[in-house]
Amino acid sequence: MATLTAKTTKQAPARNGRPAPELIFGDLWEYDPAPETADPKLLKRYELFINGKFVAPRSKKYFDSINPANEQKLAEIALAGAADVDAAYQAAHAAQRDVWGKLPGRERAKFLYRIARLLQDRAREFAVAETMDGGKPIKESRDFDIPMAAAHFFYHAGWADKLEYVAPGRRALPLGVVGQVIPWNFPMLMLAWKIAPALAMGNCVVIKPAETTSITALKFADLLQTAGLPPGVVNIVTGAGETGAAVTTHPIAAKVAFTGSTEVGKLIMRSLAGSGKKMTMELGGKAANIIFDDAPIDQAVEGIVNGIFFNQGHVCCAGSRLLVHEPVADTVIAKLRNRLRVLRVGDPMDKNTDLGAINSRQQLDNITELVNSGISEGAKMFQPPCRLPSKGFYFRPTIFTEVTQSHRIAREEIFGPVVSILTFRTVEEAVEKANNTPYGLSAGVWTDKGSRILKMSTELKAGVVWANTYNKFDPTSPFGGYKESGFGREGGRQGLLDYAKLV
Amino acid sequence: MSKYTTRSIKKASKLKGLNLAITMVDLTTLEGKDTPGKVASLCQKALHPHDDPHVPPVAAVCVYPSMVKHAKQHVGGTGVKIASVATAFPSGQAPLTTRLAEVRSAVADGADEIDMVINRGAFLAGEFQEVQDEIAAVVEACGASRLKVILEVSELETYDSIRAASFLAMEVIRPGDFIKTSTGKTSLNATLGNNQVMIEAIRDFYLDTGVAIGMKPAGGIRSAKQALQFLIAVKETLGDAWLTNERYRFGASSLLNDLLRQVEKERTGAYQAPYYFSEAAESY
Questions:
Q1: Interface membership of B127 toward A (CB under 8 Å)
Q2: Segments making up each domain of chain A, as ranges
Q3: Which residues of A touch B9 (CB under 8 A)?
Q4: By Cβ atoms counted within 10 A, which residue in A103, B66, B106, B193 is the most buried?
Q5: Which pLDDT does position A201 carry in this prediction?
Q6: What pLDDT, on a 0 to 100 scale, did the predictor assign at position B275?
Q7: Is any Cβ of chain B less than 8 angstroms from the Cβ of A7?
Q8: What span, in angstroms and rounded, lies between the C-alpha atoms of B21 and B34?
Q9: Does A316 qualify as catalytic in the annotation?
Q10: A129-169: per-residue pLDDT in tens?
């Protein structure tokens, strides 16, 4: 229990066998629909962005991007082939050698600052486009994704003229041209995490957004033209796996940065073994969110909900395994069920929606398959009753109890709004269970005891440990994992080091 | 708390929320310079907040014990209740005998509800049994009148203490009694944070025992927007059964006119100047 309990002789009146009280979460006071109406200014067709201009792909091929909330087509996106990727790299190489690599840091800073300001000016437009293309609630793209992306550009604008402090006593020089491949869960934010440090350090970039979420990246290209960024500094090539392979294996790339699944990360690493290219990998996770009996339980429940249902659970560092101390397991699970009853699932464009759409049919199928495995392996599933829209890809928030380390839903990354609940008896057991995974990206510890927080953050094999909170990010804070969650860091001074060669 | 402040409440649901909030107001005057005339003015406002007949009356008027009999002349027998502070409000620093006598006297004068203060000195010294026994004694002195127990959250300071004090009170009060955040006489009063701690305590107590206790945030709620955020918190924590003035009240004075301004804006489409709404001297 919490540190203070006021002990008195009076006990709470017993229920004496009366039926258990229930809370009524009904329709006495319904929220009216509150759709966001700002115009995302979408184009019907998006071209590749190479050498400062929008160009058609050599193959003249395009693919559709749809809105996962209602399965409607949003736009056509250019499909970059090997020839286009090569053109992008040639442009980046020339730009880095002749322009960007020669600019003083102070001048690079001005471009980064301008980009940050332009993103803020057009924040609502980008937030709406992000929600329509990816499915996340407008509340999140408006309040988290876009502001945080702008923050990354501001932060790295501040670093560009202070590079002598990145590795004191040594000179930090650019690597040259970097190839970057980003995922669909935080399209604009992942783009900012990749481009801002690369540019601050004097590199030029060829970047491939995820095929289901290319729109905000190509709107960003328009913003780069407005910022007057020299041609070739940033090149955006859209496409799927083949385009990605062309980007990561191109001979000009001095470094490859990838964020995505561990499976694809391994493929890329295999293809680059022996190539001499530097790599950073930010891969999957199966984070343990650990609740002790002295945690503030209601706040911990809020942290659990934020940990796994934020962005529909499409988060590499999601708290997908809840490890709860046995003495408080029943209490935590009961409160979690009640909390799920007021989560609002539905149209991502409604400002009151808490849980939006799953990004694609494929991802929905993956989640469904793993959830079915949980049921067939004997775990107990709970989902609150809520009506889902008839079109679009949606999944109810789900909790599994009576899960053990041997269940697939405790080992494999689901990447959806599903939390698996395991129990533990001692600190040692919590650490052992938390570390018993090939992943090692993040973890959460909920307790009132400071010494326990310090001990666990030392012993947990996770790149990020959150204490009495979850999913807290900042451009200053380096983010990355252990083991199969990858290597390298993004954010902070450590993140900049990964884009530099030290002499 | 941002989950409550980022909800978008518009149109019909906003109007419904505003009207609900009006019915939950305990219209308050607790000043050294209160007079029968001031109380008369307050009572008329409580009964008829605005010319528009669709605007409902508030839940209660809240006054000092010496003003109860004056309030009774105006709202006695109507739907608007008379709440009286008692127990040496706001400090509570008086012998128990005088505090209880004050309660009985206010009840005898016609108070339907008593707003008491707990013994914070005893609480912070760890004398929890004493605090609870005093509350139980006040319950008895109230007779049929409803009791609201003011915890004075600004003096308890931490959420731990607020939660513990909430349970302490709930264990000895009756279904339909309330716990309340503040006297309104310190610089920090009701916030979404302490409201949340207390309604979570109420929820846990209810699920454990079946006894439903009410909640009253008091002081610091001046705008309709804030009031709606508090109601969102109640809706999403306690559910529909607490969206009634039998279980939720706002201890406020200037809040009422801001609620009325917003109601009229929803009705007419135009923002209203303050002088369209009646005020007592110095806006209560």
A1: no
A2: 45-282+482-502, 288-467
A3: 31-32, 34
A4: B106
A5: 98
A6: 87
A7: yes
A8: 26
A9: yes
A10: 999 999 999 999 999 999 999 999 999 999 999 999 999 99
Of the residues B38, B45, B148, B216, only one is catalytic, namely B216
Catalytic residue flag (residue B258): no
How far from chain centre, in Å, is Cα A224?
A: 23
Does position A87 have pLDDT exceeding 50, yes or no?
A: yes
For B226-281, write each residue's pLDDT tens digit: 999 999 999 999 999 999 999 999 999 899 999 999 999 998 899 888 888 888 54
Question: Which residues lie below 8 Å from residue A31, measured CB to CB, with a gap of 6+?
Answer: A352, B7, B8, B9, B13
pLDDT of B54 reads 87
What would the mean pLDDT of A215-223 be, rounded to a whole number? 98
B51 and A CB contact within 8 Å = no
pLDDT of residue A14: 62
Is pLDDT at B284 greater than 60 in this prediction? no
Contact A79, A63 (CB under 8 A): yes
Give me the pLDDT at residue A16, please.
Answer: 65
Residue A79, pLDDT > 80, answer yes
* Closest chain A C-alpha to B282 CA, distance in angstroms: 34
| Least Cα separation, residue B74 to chain A (angstroms) | 33
Tens of pLDDT, residues A38-56: 999 999 999 999 999 999 9
Per the prediction, chain A carries an average pLDDT of 95
Among A36, A130, A204, A316, which one carries the catalytic annotation? Answer: A316
Q: Do B241 and A342 touch (CB under 8 A)?
A: no
- Any CB–CB contact under 8 A between B168 and chain A? yes
Task: Supply the CATH classification number for the domain A288-467.
Answer: 3.40.309.10
Per residue, the 3-state secondary structure of chain B, as one string, reads CHHHHCCCCCHHHHHHHHHHHHHCEEEECCCCCCCHHHHHHHHHHHHCCCCCCCCCCCCEEEECHHHHHHHHHHHCCCCCEEEEECCCCCCCCCCHHHHHHHHHHHHHHCCCEEEEECCHHHHHCCCHHHHHHHHHHHHHHHCCCEEEEECCHHHHCCHHHHHHHHHHHHCCCCCCCEEECCCCCCCCCCCHHHHHHHHHHHHHHHHHHCCCCEEECECCCCCHHHHHHHHHHHHHHCCHHHCCCCCECEEECCHHHHHHHHHHHHHHCCCCCHHHCCCCHHHC
| CATH pick for B2-266 out of 3.30.700.20, 3.30.750.24, 3.20.20.70, 3.40.1390.20 | 3.20.20.70
Cα(A317)–Cα(A441) distance, integer angstroms: 6
CA distance A417 to A386: 14
The answer to whether the pTM exceeds 0.90 is yes
Superfamily of domain A45-282+482-502: Aldehyde Dehydrogenase; Chain A, domain 1 (3.40.605.10)
